[in-house]
Fold these 4 entries.
Entry 1:
Amino acid sequence: MKARDLMEEIRENIKDYDIEIFEKKARDENADAASKQRAKFHIQNYNEIMALNIDEEGDSNIEIDDGLINDIKDELFRFFEGCSPESEEPFKRFITYSCIYLSVIAKRPLHPVGIDMHNGKTVFAEEKDGETVYYCDIKEEQSKIAKDYYTCQYCVCKPSELKENKI
């Protein structure tokens, strides 16, 4: 599948999502900081996806393996079945297609940079040789406890244990 065709599929599957749900969460004074950060992250991704123009030329027209896209969809299906079966279908679809966008097109983490996942563990970024490299403090431990699903395998983050000069 061409990147531009994938973007059309992503757009088609998220365009009707009620983004106001995230806007309300981001403004909610009673929401915890991580929930607000995730809401803002989802809003940013939605706006970026809807505005992105993939033309006929260049890197934006690369071929993307259909098998990879299907694997991501299957993994997220297992994730929702195991972690959040009560989630509504529009939300599941929004998250699935946002994750595909982040993993395959944007090549950015599946969680917001700086989010406190637990006990101060986070996702962080560093510039290295003019490139942004993303790290996750829980990717390694998640790989050890994963049973039925391991969505982290599709995230661009490297385990923070691999970071050079880690203190």
Entry 2:
Amino acid sequence: MTRILYLAHDLDDAAIWRRTSMLRAGGASVDLAGFQRSTAPLREPATVLGQTHNGKFLHRALSALRSRMQADALARGPAPDVIIARNLEMLPLARRIKRRFGANPPRLVYEVLDIHRLLIGPGLLPSALRLVERHLCRDVDKVLISSPRFDQEHFRRHGQTSAPRVLVENKVWNPNATDLAPQVIRRSRRPGDPIVIGWFGILRCAASLRLLDTLCREANGRVRLVLRGRPALDVLPDFQQVVQANPNITFMGSYRYPEDLPGIYGEVDIAWLVDRYEAGANSDWLLPNRLYESCAHGAIPLALHGTETAADLKRRGLGLVTPDLKPETLAALLAGLDDTTLAAARAAIAATDPADWRCTRDECIRLVAQLADARPSSHQSALPALAEPAENAG
């Protein structure tokens, strides 16, 4: 059995536990250690290395750098076959643990599910942080990414590492699912019903909130917005006021993943995939959870032109793409939809392979095998390693 030590930047993040579940479903034994941002009980046992704070990247990085004693303690346990460092903050600790094992060290995997804004751009701080990342990556055996644009726009552009990249998309993972059959609970549309847009997950895009508020006000009841998830109130301080002042916007609070996904996507016509929180960078490059969740549950995804999400939809011939975020542009796009066009868009999604949107147990098995083997193998075709990086571009 492959033994994995998983070092996480935030043990309160549900995505950490989903990845842990995937690795265990792939046959690995996983020991989890990391920092926590709250004092809430963890859902499963894990080694808490300390407390950090949301939005404090440098604080988390310094906390990890000071963790020499934790490295010694973690290295005293059974030797792992693989160490996964989730995000840059955890990479110094992972390297330190790896070096404790001398001549037969474990594989080191650097997991990058977004490119932090402090690493982006030509300034002194981004350049310095990229230099630090480049140095730390010298001990990395593989880089796990969730979008090919992360490789193109960051790792290859700046020559960060020669380690193979492994693409693992943000597919829906349900460890209790017995098959990949589409799970769709679709409400029945009646003549004259409004078009319902669903914006789910971490709600942090001020441009989206302004646009959708304006759209719902000017549509005179023809468009409704349903919000679910966790609003980032530090980014959207007026979130509650906007919702309460607009009768065509409803905030339904948090939801359970994956149990509630069929119901929440089944009650909307269109899934809002736009996020301009880090426009021109991470927001343009990522392939979000909402893409896979919406298509897995029969909602029509809507993305912004110029993003990797829109490019992915165009390649597949699915969903809707708006050329810009002007209220009149979006209103015109929605005005061209009726029951026939909505049904056709849903039918196109239903005709795709469910494995495009849902992670299978076989994928988990291949992932574990690939991470444990630093050499190219037959597993590379299922979870492809991307092209080698360009020369160091600074």
Entry 3:
Amino acid sequence: MVHAYFSPAQAESYNHLASRTDSKFEVHYFGFHALAGTTRSILAVAGADFKSAIPAEGTWAAEHKAKAPFGYMPLLRETSPDGKHTLLISESEAIERYLARKFGLLGKNGYEELIINQFVSSNSGMAMNLVQKFFIVRDNAELQAANKAKLLEGPIPSWIAAHEKHLRENPAAVAKGLKDGNGHYVGETFSLADVKMAGLVDMVRVVTGDDMVSKEKTPAMWKVKEAMEASPSVKAWKATPEFKEISERNFQFMGFY
């Protein structure tokens, strides 16, 4: 029998919900940021009605894992305001792009979406590099130090230089004479690439400190972070007890907020 997440019966719900922005959302994931961080940030910047569904400690494998189509989270449940339609989505990238399209974070046309997706891919690659080579191995100080040295020799400086350049060259910023960009990759509004970058800045700074990433040294990247933090709906989300608890757990598990 086809899995519930891939059932043709979901097509009706998709058709009803895909263009709506007033749905209610449940983000099913553990009590830290990681693979659900971008999803929660998209919902926050969009001002969506959402909550985190965090499995009780020790219950995921026994009670929930078998129900997920690939045995992993995050999972997203979207429900119409009247409760009559529900859409289930698995896998972080699929969830992020679905929500980004719904809330207008993939540009104004196909070409802008193509550009945004390239920036997203680069940022996702750097995030995974940091997680695998630095954060996950933090209990092995010798290995972490060796990996950090390699990251600082090439991957991080190259990524910084490329993204700082592209942010500064955003045509919308150049047209207004903004030499350090306008806080966005494309145009003058938030995109999925902005959301990825805003979360990634703090991750990178755990590795580099102020030596490579700061308001003075990478002003274009810093503007993206500031733009996200200035969003009223993002401010509201970050002020909630839920966000603060998730951030604290993230620090305990990964070593950064």
Entry 4:
Amino acid sequence: MQIGNFGFYSQNNLNVWKEKTNISQNLETSSKFNKDSSIQNTNEDKEKNKNKNTQNINGKELEADEVQYVRELESIDRNVKAHEAAHIAAGAGVVSGGASYGYTRGPDGKMYATSGEVPISIKKGSTPEETIQNARQIVAAAMAPADPSPQDYKVAASAMQMESQARTEQAQERAKENEELLKKQEEQKQQEDKKTFFNDKKREYALQIYTQNQSAYQPRVEIAG
């Protein structure tokens, strides 16, 4: 199972950028068929104004809204990588690999990370106690980022369910152990009672023999003459 971000950050901005690009392409296509000199002059004026408002980013001249979008992509890239790093830092023992990213190409031609994921192993331990420990580590890893994604909450919920099942198994095992302990204690008590009974009988028999011997004994008295 994976934990991480899945492109929730930039989808709206990405759609806006695609829409803007399509509109720009349509305008360029229609201008090829327009021979009116006044419109051509207007386009030239717009191009001059456009150049005045552009900014060079990574070797490309970008308009103000494009620059803003690049800045947003830069911020998203940092947040996504910090998000996945938090998963890895808190997931010792349960994170089974490094982070992988999905990228979006910005108006400047650079690729920015806009989604990411970290592989995590949701597995039971050899004992309920070990399973509980694993589950808690998974929850810690899933909820480590400051802004957990819906997928992170889903993974945490699965781990908590696994912990709940392990606790049920743990309770059943303890109940069985207690039952076996009580049974063993009862058997020991029966053995002790039986031993006490025979010891009492032996003492009673010895006392009875002693009493009988005392009753049968007649001291002899001799008188010298």
